[in-house]
Specification:
The protein is of the alpha+beta class. The protein contains 2 helices and 5 strands. The chain has one domain: TmoB-like (Ubiquitin-like (UB roll), Roll). The chain is globular, with a radius of gyration of 13 Å.
């Protein structure tokens, strides 16, 4: 359990946020901690969305992963960018 600083941006927002997340947080929680700064402020709510997706570099990361696993798998470094977007329906491509 350790604080880990990242820059998070919600797709469609022009304001990035410095967010301190915990290495024991799920990527779902990381996405929520980033989204809270944008959704309903500069990004409208999307009632049809079934949640979020999170991208590190070019890779979408499973929401059930802990941040510590994402760090190991993707090489995420402190203060690196993480992008959150609305989850895409099954079968829909980027």
């Amino acid at each position: 359990m350790a604080l880990f600083p990242i820059y998070g941006v919600f797709k469609g927002d022009f304001v990035p946020h410095l967010v301190a997340v915990d290495t024991d947080d799920s990527m779902q929680k990381v996405a929520e901690q980033i989204a809270v700064h944008s959704v309903g402020r500069r990004v409208p709510h999307k009632p049809s969305a079934s949640g979020y997706q999170i991208q590190i570099g070019e890779s979408l990361v499973p929401l059930q992963w802990l941040l510590s696993k994402a760090i190991g798998e993707t090489g995420l470094k402190p203060l690196q960018w993480v992008t959150v977007d609305w989850a895409r329906p099954a079968g829909e491509h980027l």
